[in-house]
Amino acid sequence: MPAAHDAELCKERNRIERAINGLKRFRAVATRFDKRAASYFATRCLVAALAWL
After folding, report:
1. Could you say which DSSP state residue 24 is in?
2. Record's superkingdom (predicted)?
3. What is the pLDDT of residue 12?
4. Average pLDDT value over all residues in the chain
5. Fewer CB near the terminus (10 Å): N or C of the chain?
């Protein structure tokens, strides 16, 4: 019996995976150079804002 396929769930997952991979283009986010969680979060926010523009 084949597994159930939810097309809407797959679309949402694909969208999230693409967003994460887009953020990984920036080396500081992909390798996490920042030592503190707050600095890393700020870097992620900055990169997300740049990607959104």
Report:
1. T
2. Bacteria
3. 92
4. 81
5. N
Q: Crossing angle, helix 7-23 and helix 37-52, to 10 degrees?
A: 110
C-beta atoms surrounding 29 within 10 Å: 19
How many Cβ atoms are within 10 Å of 7's Cβ, its own excluded? 7
pTM of the prediction? 0.52
Q: Are 12 and 18 in contact, with CB atoms under 8 Å apart?
A: no
Q: 24 Cβ partners below 8 Å, 6+ apart?
A: 30
Under a CB-based contact definition with an 8 Å cutoff, are residues 27 and 41 in contact?
no
**pLDDT at residue 37 in the model:** 83
